[in-house]
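Need the bound structure for adenosine-5'-diphosphate, inputs here:
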Amino acid sequence: MASDTYYGAIEAGGTKFVCAVGAGPHAVDAQIRIPTTTPSETFQAVVDFFRSHTAGRRLDAIGIASFGPIDLNPGSETYGYITSTPKPGWKNANFVGTIRNAFDVPIGFDTDVNGAVLAEHKWGAAQDVNSAVYYTIGTGIGGGGIANGQLLHGLMHPEMGHMRLKISDDEVDGFNGACPYHGNCFEGLASGPAMQARWQTPAEQLPIGHPAWTLEAGYIAQAMVNTACILSPERIILGGGVMQQEHLFPMVHKQFMDTMQGYIASVSSAAAVENYIVAPGMGDLVGLGAGFALAEAALLI
Ligand code: ADP
Ligand code: ZN
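Answer from helper R.:
Posting the output first, comments after.
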């Protein structure tokens, strides 16, 4: 890839969009945060930013790492749309079409977490492997993956945050999970809002040592065992607001080992598990990295 290639990157979240222009996540020339309001207002702000910050240069490609669910089927009439989101006003928003009307360049479009795992593969904690999964544990829980270096797509895109989990024997009395669709799926039991609903306290205010964290680590570990058994990724990366609580990692590692019982030999030692379930190598750059990785991939197609 020529080093003078110039990209637009969009990290599209339900609360805010972060956009950047530059040669990559470590060579950003300009960046902006845009509150997620209506689709038309938000998309217009993205277009205005790209128009005014490219300094006469042409963008070679744009990458969009988006909240979902999204339509990724190239043969579909609604390719590039945000589909069944409960977010008011965003159902059936034509994301790629709107950006393409303004910029006739290759556009990479995928979920935020598929973008994130691609970015971690290029620049972060999954550079030494060809299969990996990235989870964000925040307002929602999402998971993306690569196998043989390629993003996982199929019926749509993975929805790993909605895998069903067994409710813990130590669960708070009467709490059945907060997902409006499934109750006790991973997101319903372990997202930030699930923690808030269970403990009536925002996750960031729960002190280290609170039973909330043992329960949380148990659910994350359960999901990681499922992930390791189903997809056999060589690395699992855990990001998102809740994982800012670094003390969760050793707790997840321990409960992962307790549940797995040494069944998968390559991740049966403490040292191996520490190197298996890890924090994002790109740190806070992973969100924009997702946009850049998808832009780069769009150019290579
Ligand atoms: P989003 O998912 O909206 O992109 P985040 O990944 O920051 O944003 O997730 C926000 C959720 O994570 C909220 O439910 C919040 O309570 C929780 N959260 C954010 N920061 C922390 C923290 N330091 N510790 C624990 N929970 C956090
Ligand atoms: Zn669910």
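Comments: The chain has a mean pLDDT of 96. The pocket of adenosine-5'-diphosphate (ligand 1) is lined by residues 13, 15, 136, 138-139, 192-193, 202-204, 240-242, 244-245 (CB under 6 Å).
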